[in-house]
What does this fold into?
Amino acid sequence: MTDPIITQYIQDLRANGRHSVNTLTTYADLLTRLDRDLPYGLCDANADELRDAIYTDDRKPSTRALYRAAVTGFFRWGCSEERPEPSRFEWDPTPYLPRVDVPRRASRPITHDQLRDILRRGRDPFRVWYLLAAGEGLRCIEISRLDREDITCEDTVIRGKGGRERIVPTPGAVWAAVVDLPPGPIARHPDGTGRADRRQVRERANNHLQRTLRHRGVTMHRLRHWYGTYVHQAAGGDLRVTQELLGHASPTTTQVYVDTSGARKRAAVDNLPLPVD
It folds into this structure.
C-alpha cells in the first residue's frame, strides 16, 4: 500500500505538468518500494539507510541515478517551506547521497540501407509510424498522441513529454503518407477503434521491424536516432536546432542522439595541421 504522502507528492508533480505519465508511474513505484523495504519507512530514513537501499551491486548506474532523482525530489518537496501542510520530515538526508556517474550512451542510428528497406517493405500503419520517427523524430508516446489534424503540408504539432508542444516542419514523404488518412488518431487500437497507447505503438512497430521485416536489433528509438544524426548534419552542426526538433529539455540529452559518420571523423583527423616534417 502506498503511503499517502507519496501519493500526494506524485499528485503535485502531475499538477505542475513537468513529468510524463510514465515518469510519474516509475517514481511512484520506486518510492513505494523503498518505503516498504527501509527499516522505518522512507519518510524516516537516514542517509546511510538510503545509501544501502539504493546503491546495490545488482543495479546499473542508470537505475541508481533514477532512484536518487526520485528520492531527492521527494525529500526536497517534503521539506519545502512553501508546502501548506506541516512537513513529516525532520530533515533532508539526500545531500549526503553520492552522485551517480552514468556512462554516456552512444548514438545508434540505423543505416540508410536499413531505413530504405523498412520504408519500402513496411506495411501500414507501421510504415507511417516509421516515417514519423525517422522523418520528424517522434517518440512512440508522441505518435500515440498524434491526430491527423495535427499534420499539415507545412508543419506538424507534436505533444511531447510533460505536455510540452513543439512544431516541426513536415517532410514531403510524411505528408504524402498521411494526406488521405481519416481524421482522428494516427495510431489506432489493433481492433481499429480508439487510440493506441505508447506501449502498443512501441511493441507493434518493433515486432513488425524485427519479426516481419527481419531487421534484428532495430527499434523505433533507433529511427529517432537516425533523425537526430542527420538533422544535425543538415543543420550544419547546430546543436540548438537539433535539440528543438527532438524536443529535448537539455542539449546534453541531444548529444546522445547525434552520431558522426566514420567518413567525417576520418576527414577531420586527416585535416589536422600536425606540425611534423
